[in-house]
């Protein structure tokens, strides 16, 4: 017997051949075969253990155990021929690896066999198979119906009530089948595993059925040989390879036994371990199984803290405000400042890596080493205590919850990129909007000043002034050319700034080394670099043109200066009013020059409105398209969840039906506008954010009221009140804020989750009890997927029946390809789901610790599970006695 340990790995599939003959059987073909040859053949086949089951003999058991040492586990066993059927029925007796030849031969003596009969296949135990099974059971062994579908097998050579009685005998633990891959029998439900699956109206019993080799010679002569070892075998899920573990496998074959041809190892993301330094769990390390982990213990031992510390380390805090506050409080009081967690993870490729995060609010809880977006790199479905209730009560949280079941990072990244581009366009467009009325006003001011200059020109008429007026007009024209070059250069530089902000498109982390994507990323980077380079080159060309302009102006400047001096001299001679008029004219000329510079800038901005609007509309279209694809992906995921729920749920997505964000933002903007809430409701119900903002801006910026009038009619709001709202919004808020509303408040998807309350009558979540809501959300949580699920007491608010039907069944079926980590007080969840590894915690006043870990197949963990999940032996006996239903376990 393996020495018990406080900490073991938990359940792992082991490859075993539990029907193997040696030269101790008279029908073994080559008597020269040695124990070492058998060992090497078994190891070559990848076996972790064998059962030596010679015909009526245990002679080679001890020798095989000695040869195997620690390389291979050897079950002592024997194949018996019992007096029944046509020529006798074969039964295998298996004993614990701690037993040996003596235990087998003691059984043979108890069954009435003499040493001279050992090893002879023709020797028949003169007892009924049921009596033999009882004797083996009483001696601590397990009884298996050998090759049940072939010669001397119970299904081949027995008939009638005798066969039924043997199959129903509680001393019989399992059966061997050799017809698993017989497609004809599979179609007619006649394989051994089909007949003994509990549905047969005669047998009315489910038996574990598995393959074993019986190491045939391959010559169809009924003899056994070395080459036949491991040619048929099975995988058994065990913590330790011993008889107690095999009892558990035979008791729950659906999750514990896989035939060799159907066994595959799946690589999927998993949390390997967490180690805590500091606080209540100082120095504790929890090593997790890849399947189902159940964390148990009394209240206050730190079970929930393990969950919260995992959430902290993986940067995936609760979304609900109240649950998050509790999460943060636990970190502050139980991990404490500068405490840290180290978490080892294994990604979808099987690659391991370790992260470390320190609790340090002043430094945003830093990670040690490389900076990870760990919540994106390694998503986990976390649920703290009662969190599922909060999710069930809020549509936004339901959508976020559904989104956790698919890697939507590409959609989120794409949406974020488009919104970033739109924000940049918003700034440019807002400048154009502000410049539009400004340019109109400046044009009017220039016209007025020009007319005033004309009047002054008439009052200042003389030959010198006439000459200067011509030179002055030419000088203004020349400088306007310089200003135009400057505007061109600034425009190009603005384009260069915009180009530098263009992103090259996101790539999921798992595709970061994909050759195609890497090449396309290079193309994007090259294109961006080329655009920036070309714009820089154009800017340089314009700058050189500006230098040429400066040279031209330098040639002209003396001529202009001479004319101005001559004019200034005439002004001095004229004195009095003439001088004042000249000064006034000079000032107005400077005013016009400044206004023309301002107009040039404003016109450039306002003239760009059309082009910017077109570019912005293109990005808005891409954003809408991405959102539509996102909605479609959600719908497809919901369809999979619904299919996996097998009639328990209907899960739908009502695309772009949730306008709550639009309503909330509009309500906050309209304060002070005197518009009624009911009118805002009408806008939100009958129009979307895009058409509303476009109508408001067309009226507020350009004074065009047709679109706003149409919107007023559509929403049944008085047009005067609608215009008042538009004027209010455009005067009280920045255009950037209004433009952002166009895409930040797009209608969101609305989840529709219906729960089958019975007889295919489905009710929405808002009409369900708390327990039904939780059941519905947990069905979704346990739907098909690969990333880990970590839940603190998932059984809360659920009834026992729902725990079995909606949780245990799913966990049992998925835990070979997905990791589950639960804290629990529920035996149905932990035991009936066949926990792969229990983590048992105890605590003193200031410190919690992990005292045991491993499967419940063996002590001391089996006793601890009984204590914490059933209340102990006395409680369990009292409950079992009250049921008075021995047939429940038959």
Would you kindly provide a brief summary of this structure?
It contains 31 helices and 22 strands. With 890 residues, it is of the alpha/beta class.
Structure description:
38% of the residues are buried. This protein has 4 domains: 13-262, Metal-dependent hydrolases (TIM Barrel); 270-384 and 786-855, Rossmann fold (3-Layer(aba) Sandwich); 409-607, no CATH class; 660-746, no CATH class. Strand 19, helix 28 (800-814) and strand 20 form a beta-alpha-beta unit. 51% of the residues lie in helices and 14% in strands. It is of the alpha/beta class and 890 residues long. The chain has a 9-stranded mixed beta sheet, with helices on both faces. A 6-stranded mixed beta sheet has the order 15-19-20-12-21-22, sandwiched between helices. It has 31 helices and 22 strands. The model has no long low-confidence stretch (mean pLDDT 87). It is elongated.
């Amino acid at each position: 017997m393996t020495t018990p340990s406080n900490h073991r790995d938990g359940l792992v599939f082991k490859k075993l051949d539990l029907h193997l003959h040696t030269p101790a059987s008279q029908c073994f073909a080559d008597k020269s075969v040695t124990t070492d040859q058998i060992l090497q053949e078994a190891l070559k086949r990848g076996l972790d253990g064998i059962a030596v089951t010679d015909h009526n003999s245990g002679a080679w058991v001890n020798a095989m155990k000695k040869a195997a040492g620690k390389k291979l586990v050897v079950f002592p066993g024997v194949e018996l021929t019992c007096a029944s059927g046509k020529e006798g029925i074969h039964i295998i007796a298996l004993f614990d690896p701690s037993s040996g030849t003596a235990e087998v031969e003691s059984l043979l003596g108890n069954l009435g066999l003499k040493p001279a009969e050992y090893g002879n296949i023709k020797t028949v135990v003169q007892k009924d198979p049921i009596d033999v099974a009882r004797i083996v059971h009483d001696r601590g062994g397990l009884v298996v119906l050998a090759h049940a579908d072939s010669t001397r097998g119970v299904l081949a050579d027995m008939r009638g009530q005798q066969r039924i009685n043997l199959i129903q005998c509680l001393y019989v633990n399992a059966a061997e089948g050799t017809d698993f891959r017989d497609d004809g029998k599979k179609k007619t439900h006649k394989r051994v595993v089909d007949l003994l699956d509990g549905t047969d109206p005669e047998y009315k019993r489910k038996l574990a059925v598995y393959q074993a080799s019986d190491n045939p010679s391959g010559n169809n002569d009924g003899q056994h040989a070395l080459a036949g070892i491991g040619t048929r075998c099975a995988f058994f899920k065990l913590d330790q390879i011993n008889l107690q573990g095999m009892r558990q496998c035979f008791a729950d074959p659906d999750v514990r036994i896989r035939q060799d041809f159907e066994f595959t190892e799946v690589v999927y993301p998993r949390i390997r371990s967490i180690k805590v330094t500091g606080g209540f769990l100082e120095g504790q390390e929890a090593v997790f199984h890849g399947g189902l982990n159940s964390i148990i213990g009394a209240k206050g031992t730190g079970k929930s803290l393990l969950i919260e510390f995992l959430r902290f380390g993986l940067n995936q805090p609760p979304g609900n405000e109240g649950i998050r506050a509790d999460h943060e409080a636990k970190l502050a009081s139980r991990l404490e400042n500068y405490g840290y967690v180290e978490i080892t993870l294994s990604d979808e490729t099987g690659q391991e890596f370790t992260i470390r995060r320190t609790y340090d609010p002043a430094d945003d809880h830093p990670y040690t080493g490389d900076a990870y977006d760990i919540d994106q790199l390694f998503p986990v479905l976390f649920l703290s205590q009662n969190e599922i209730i909060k999710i069930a009560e809020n549509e936004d949280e339901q959508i976020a919850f559904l989104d956790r079941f698919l890697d939507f990072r590409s959609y989120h990244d794409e949406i974020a990129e488009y919104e970033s581009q739109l924000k940049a366009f918003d700034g440019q467009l807002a400048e154009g909007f502000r410049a539009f009325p400004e340019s109109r006003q400046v044009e009017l001011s220039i016209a007025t000043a020009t007319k005033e200059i004309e009047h002054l020109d008439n009052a200042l008429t003389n030959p010198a002034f006439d000459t200067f007026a011509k030179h002055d007009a030419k000088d203004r024209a020349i400088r306007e050319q310089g200003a135009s070059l400057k505007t061109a250069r600034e425009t190009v530089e603005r384009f260069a700034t915009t180009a530098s902000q263009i992103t090259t498109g996101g790539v999921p982390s798992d595709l970061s080394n994909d050759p195609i994507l890497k090449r396309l990323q290079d193309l994007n980077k090259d294109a961006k670099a080329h655009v920036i380079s070309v714009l820089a080159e154009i800017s340089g060309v314009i700058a050189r043109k500006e230098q040429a302009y400066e040279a031209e102006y330098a040639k002209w400047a003396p001529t202009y200066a001479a004319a101005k001096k001559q004019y200034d001299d005439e002004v001095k001679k004229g004195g009095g009013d003439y001088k004042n008029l000249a000064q006034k004219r000079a000032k107005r000329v400077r005013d016009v020059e400044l206004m023309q510079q301002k107009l040039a800038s404003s016109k450039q901005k306002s003239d760009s409105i059309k082009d910017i609007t077109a570019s912005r509309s293109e990005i808005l279209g891409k954003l809408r398209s991405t959102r539509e694809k996102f909605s479609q992906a959600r719908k497809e995921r919901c369809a999979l969840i619904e299919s996996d729920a097998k009639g328990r749920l209907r899960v739908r997505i009502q695309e772009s039906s949730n306008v709550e964000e639009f309503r909330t933002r509009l309500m906050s903007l309209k304060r002070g506008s005197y518009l009624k809430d009911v009118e805002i409701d009408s806008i939100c119900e009958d129009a979307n954010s895009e058409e509303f903002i476009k109508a408001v801006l067309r009226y507020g910026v350009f004074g065009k009221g047709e679109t706003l009038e149409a919107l007023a009619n559509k929403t049944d709001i008085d047009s005067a009140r609608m215009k008042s709202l538009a004027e209010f919004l455009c005067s009280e808020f920045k255009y950037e804020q209004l433009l952002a509303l166009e895409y930040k408040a797009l209608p969101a998807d609305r989840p529709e989750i219906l729960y089958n309350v019975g007889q295919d009558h489905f009710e929405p979540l808002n009409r369900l009890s708390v327990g039904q809501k939780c059941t519905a959300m947990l069905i979704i949580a346990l739907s098909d997927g690969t990333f880990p699920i970590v839940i603190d007491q998932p059984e809360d608010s659920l009834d026992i029946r729902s725990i079995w039907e909606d949780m245990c069944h799913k966990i049992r079926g998925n835990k070979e390809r997905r990791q589950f980590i639960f804290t629990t007080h529920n035996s149905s969840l932990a035991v009936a789901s066949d926990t792969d590894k229990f983590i048992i915690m105890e605590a003193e006043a200031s410190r919690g610790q992990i005292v045991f870990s491993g499967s419940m197949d063996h002590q001391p963990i089996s006793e601890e599970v009984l204590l914490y999940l059933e209340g102990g032996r006395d409680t369990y006996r009292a409950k079992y006695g009250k049921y008075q239903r021995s047939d429940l376990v038959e």
